[in-house]
Amino acid sequence: MRRRGPGLRLRITLLTTALVAVVGAVLLALGWVLVGRVFDSSPSFPAGSQVNVDGVNVDVTVLTDALTAAARQDLLRAGLVAFACMVVAAAVLAWTFTGRVLKPLHDVTGAAQRLSAESLGSRLRLEGPRDEVAELADTFDAMLDRLEAAFDSQRRFVANASHELRTPLSVVRTELDVTLSDPDADVEELRRMAGVVRAAGERAEQLVSALLLLARTDGIGLAVREPVDLAAVVESAWRAVRAEADARQLRTVFRCAPALAVGDPALLERIAGNLLENAVRHNHVDGWIETTVETGPQWSVLRVSSSGQLIPPNRVEELFEPFRRGVKDRTSQTGTGLGLSIVRAAVAAHGGFVQAVAVPTGGLSVTVHLPSAPR
Q1: How far apart (Å, rounded) are the C-alpha atoms in residues 19 and 7?
Q2: Could you tell me which of 274, 253, 258, 285 has the C-alpha nearest to residue 343?
Q3: Which EC numbers does the record give (predicted)?
Q4: Are 162 and 108 found together in one domain?
Q5: What is the distance between the alpha carbons of residues 346 and 273, in angstroms, rounded to a whole number?
Q6: How many whole angstroms separate alpha carbon 233 and alpha carbon 210?
Q7: Is 232 in the same domain as 367?
Q8: Domain for residue 124, yes or no?
Q9: What's the DSSP call for residue 321?
């Protein structure tokens, strides 16, 4: 382990004491010099003059030198005592007040040492003057808030992903157990079981693919950046869901002008594909879908609106959470429940943003803003 030097409290105390010692030494030296100048500036007498001191005639020059030396000795003696007392007092006061000032830092350190995934609920909530230490404590509390929210989100995500993956596996195991336990199972029964197992496997594969795509786009930069026409992306994505839309007899309107955005073509097609898939699968028979692509000086805009179930406006934001399928229970619809989560993550990776509003008559309108390519 790397050895560390003295603590901050000790260093501040030593620095403060050293500064006081230097200042005291300078003042003592100035006093020494000033005492000599005082006697040097006293009235002068003619050379050879003598002064009677206690009945003894003493030369004026000798008397002046003796008085100067005595004054300097007194100054030095008193000054050294005062100097020592001042240094000791400075050290004690610096140690005491530095400890009080640094106490919040020790609280932050103690809280960080006690921190774990199970103890993210503790906060410093430092009271007192709003100085730099208080700002540090507030920043630490804010960091804990973000960490706690991230851990909670991760726990929910893992729990939901485990549930989603468990469902097709349970279906596979149940079908296998039922079929294998039937000694009279014929070819038709085996084919039926194989179809169910295949459908469950495809569902699990779709979920794993969606999870991998979400992990690849969430918080990670783009590997490819090039101009992409959003109108062409929408046309390509629509071909994948057109048959399903025709089966539901959905009325579609496309207002797609050429609009160049900068990004990864595959991810941009996934954004358009997820929005169109949601618009089709969460729609009702004889419903409608309206898709708009337009461009501007800063943003290229893709908007997909559709009819569907009535969504309370205050629950629209929940649709972007993983494993949400509409406002009903998450097992009530087909799909992986990661469509809009992937859309938000992919759009954020492109430097854009997503807005969604509930259609008053039922349904959802999602608008994606992506950086426009320079013309």
Answers
A1: 18
A2: 274
A3: 2.7.13.3
A4: no
A5: 12
A6: 19
A7: yes
A8: no
A9: S
Q: What is the pLDDT of residue 46?
A: 63
Tell me, what CATH number does 187's domain have? 1.10.287.130
pLDDT in tens, 13-58: 888 888 888 888 888 788 777 766 665 655 565 666 665 666 666 6
- pLDDT greater than 60 at residue 219: no
Break the chain down into helix, strand, coil percent, rounded to 5.
60, 15, 25
Count of other CB atoms within 10 angstroms of residue 341:
24
Residue 244 inside a domain? The answer is yes
Contacts for 87-96 with beta carbons within 8 Å, 24 or more apart? Answer: 87/17, 87/20, 87/21, 87/24, 90/16, 90/17, 90/20, 90/21, 91/13, 91/16, 91/17, 94/12, 94/13, 94/16, 94/17, 95/9, 95/13
Two tokens, residue 6:
């003295």
Which residue is associated with the tokens 């100097």? 83
Enumerate residues 6+ apart whose C-beta is below 8 A from 347: 271, 353, 354, 368, 369, 370
Task: Give the pLDDT score at 302.
Answer: 94
**Which residue is it, tokens 């199972």?**
185
Number of Cβ within a 10 Å radius of residue 27: 14
Same domain, 194 and 318: no
CA 174/CA 248 separation, integer angstroms:
32
Cα 301 to Cα 113, 138, 251, 286, 373: the distances in Å are 47, 39, 22, 27, 12
In a domain, 159, yes or no: yes
The torsion angle over the Cα atoms of residues 161, 163, 169 and 175, rounded to 10 degrees, is -150
Beta bridge partners of 225: none
* Size (the chain), residues: 375
Amino acid code (one letter) for 40: D
Phi, psi of 371 (to 5 degrees): -60, 130
Q: How many domains does the chain have?
A: 3
Residue 19 structure tokens: 């500064």
Q: Is 210 exposed, middle or buried (0-12, 13-18, 19+ CB in 10 A)?
A: buried
CB-side exposure of 263: number of CA atoms within 13 Å? 27
Q: What residues make up the domain containing 171?
A: 132-217
**CA angle (337 as vertex; 333, 340 as ends), nearest 5:** 120
Q: How many CB atoms lie within 10 A of CB 40?
A: 10
Task: Give the tens place of pLDDT for each residue, 53-85.
Answer: 666 666 666 666 776 777 778 777 887 888 888
Q: What 3 state SS string does 99-138 have? A: HHHHHHHHHHHHHHHHCCCCCCCCCCCCCCCCCHHHHHHH
